[in-house]
Design goal:
590 residues, alpha+beta, nine-stranded mixed β-sheet, five-stranded mixed β-sheet, 29 strands, 28% strand
């Protein structure tokens, strides 16, 4: 490919709408161009990288016996109604109505279509196991598309689905996909971690995410020295062990003007000194947070329903709404409004305590505690009267709850399931694998006859890889101050030949070397631009574009040598013209 004819325009300045370094460089180097918020055009250079990523994913899928097909992006409403995802996806779903008034959608994911297709074609256990996949464009109406191709509203994804007669077959398919994903992400060339995850709107049981480790990522995950790793939304903090009761009887005290934890702690230290001489802290208080759950419509509640929920957490902690939403899904979480307080007059806003909370208590509001609230521990909490708190209220002796909930924010140093401290990190979700079980098969009637002639529901797995997102992540993980530095396996070209001079003999020699390299089966980008394009501009473009090997045909040609540069290390060396083709081939092919 000659630069003089390549559809390319590089930029010297960062685009105004770009946030992350890789995003800026993909635009500046002419790989992508913004068409609308969250929607990008893939230019020739970018498309070459994208196709190489697709090729890696396709190779590893076919290696585990998966067969490729392709569904339409424009889909009917009915299958998604059958699984309730027409409702559960909410505003993230692109919906439209055709000219005949039929509801349609642009597919965010294709579980329903895969399930129905297998149902139409297969009826016996002899047809299984089966794994199908596609690499196809998806659509999600993201509220805040950001970071270029990392979080778009239109994106390419690989989704595959396994179909098995029983749970043991599903486990084998899940394990095969997990191993394939490790190979895929090893080949793509960025740091990643496999973490336990929540299934979200996909449903199902076991679920793991493959996260690219990146400080600019939207996902927070935890890990420990024992090898545990999980998305914060899926972290299970172990319950605190019961402790002996050492507090005296609970007693109510006047605490006027203390509706917040900060004002309460100040008043306690000023007017209610602790017997042990220590100062009160926020960690000594029990904060009761109220939210409203909005459940989706079902047969019993065709209009949906609203349910108040109270959560008791230590006063030095905050409720993580993302973790809470995972726990209560498919319900949505809304703030507890003034109208909700008015509907529950027993709630003393700012002074709410366990005395009125619980399904059997005055409010009838379900009350869940954070697992760190140990049985036997004593707390300062609301006395359910304005301007009053109760001190030494003991869990198990003076109050109980309806259960526990994993909803507080996770902090650096919290103890994880292994009893070891957790560290926090940021990442970008690159792949997600699910054991769906029979959820979609039951909803859509996917059954086969087993070896005894009985109908059994098929067990399914779902496995996704963000293909366009992979390009963005590779760019974020592989760049320097000069430009992109592509890993060789996904680079748009194997070698970038630069004719750095003005003499006709120099361009003839560079052109011949480019042709000889192509004859060896290499993908060659040849900067043959003449006229006003200086060698300095060519060098800057070569560094910005980021091809792994740069071959400079310049003034050394008079001495029979050309310069070979490694883009990643910056190492340069002179190579005799007669030896350079073999040298480049050896470098490219390892």
């Amino acid at each position: 490919m000659r630069m003089s004819s390549l559809f390319l325009r590089t930029l010297r300045e960062d685009p105004a709408d770009a946030e992350l370094p890789g995003h800026k460089l993909l635009v500046r180097a002419g790989y992508v161009r913004r068409a609308a918020p969250g929607v990008y055009t893939w230019l020739p250079l970018g498309l070459r990288v994208l196709r190489k990523v697709e090729g890696i994913v396709r190779e590893e899928m076919e290696a585990i016996g998966a067969q490729e097909l392709s569904f339409p992006a424009l889909l009917p409403k009915e299958p998604y109604e059958a699984t309730n995802r027409w409702t559960e996806y909410g505003p993230n779903l692109f919906r439209l109505v055709d000219r005949k008034g039929a509801d349609m959608l642009l597919g965010p994911t294709h579980e329903e279509m895969f399930t129905l297709t297998v149902k139409d074609m297969y009826t016996s256990y002899k047809d299984l196991p089966l794994t199908l996949f596609q690499i196809q464009t998806k659509y999600r109406d993201e509220a805040r598309p950001r970071a270029g191709v990392l979080r778009g509203r239109e994106f390419i994804m690989k989704d595959s689905y396994s179909f098995d007669v029983d749970a043991s077959g599903l486990q084998k398919a899940y394990d095969a996909h997990r191993a394939a994903y490790v190979k895929i992400f090893d080949r793509l060339g960025f740091e990643y971690v496999v973490v336990q995850a929540d299934s979200g709107a996909m449903g199902g049981s076991a679920s793991e995410e493959f996260l690219a480790v990146n400080d600019g990522g939207e996902d927070t995950f935890v890990r420990d020295e024992a090898g545990y790793a999980a998305n914060v939304e899926a972290v299970e903090i172990p319950p605190a062990a019961a402790v002996p009761v050492t507090a005296g009887p609970a007693h109510v005290e006047d605490t006027p003007g203390t509706p917040t934890i900060e004002t309460l702690v100040a008043a306690l230290n000023a007017d209610h000194a602790r017997a042990d001489g220590h100062e009160w802290t926020a960690a000594d208080t029990l904060k009761n947070v109220l939210v409203m759950l909005v459940h989706p419509a079902d047969e019993e509640h065709p209009e949906g329903r609203r349910e108040p929920l109270a959560i008791g957490v230590p006063g030095d902690r905050e409720v993580d709404l993302a973790r809470l939403e995972v726990t209560v899904a498919p319900a949505a979480v809304e703030a507890f409004a003034e109208a909700d307080f008015a509907a529950h007059p027993a709630l003393a806003k700012g002074y709410i305590g366990p005395g009125v909370l619980g399904e059997e208590k005055a409010t009838g509001i379900r009350y869940l505690l954070d697992p760190s609230v140990a049985e036997g521990s004593a707390w300062v909490t609301g006395a359910d009267e304005h301007g009053r708190h109760v001190i030494d209220l003991v869990h198990g002796r003076d109050f109980t709850a309806d259960g526990t909930v994993q909803a507080v924010e996770i902090r650096e140093g919290d103890l994880g399931p292994n009893g070891t401290p957790l560290t926090l990190a940021r990442g970008i979700e690159m792949g997600h694998i699910f054991q769906l079980g029979t959820k979609y098969a039951e909803a859509l009637g996917l059954k086969v006859l087993d070896e005894n002639g009985s109908l059994v529901t098929v067990h399914m797995g779902s496995y996704g890889v963000g293909v366009t997102r992979a390009v963005g992540v590779i760019a974020e993980d592989n760049h320097d101050e000069l430009g992109l530095v592509w890993p060789r396996e996904v680079a748009p070209f194997d070698v970038h030949v630069v004719a750095a001079g003005k003499g006709e003999d120099l361009f003839v020699a560079a052109g011949q070397l480019a042709a000889d390299l192509e004859a060896q089966g290499l993908d060659v980008l040849y900067d043959d631009r003449a006229g006003k394009v200086s060698p300095g501009v060519k060098f800057k473009d070569a560094e910005l574009v980021g091809v792994p090997t740069i071959l400079v045909v310049g003034k050394g040609l008079a001495d029979g040598v050309v310069e070979l540069k490694d883009r990643r290390s910056g190492e340069r060396r002179d190579v005799p013209v007669g030896e350079v083709v073999a040298a480049v081939v050896a470098e490219v092919r390892g």
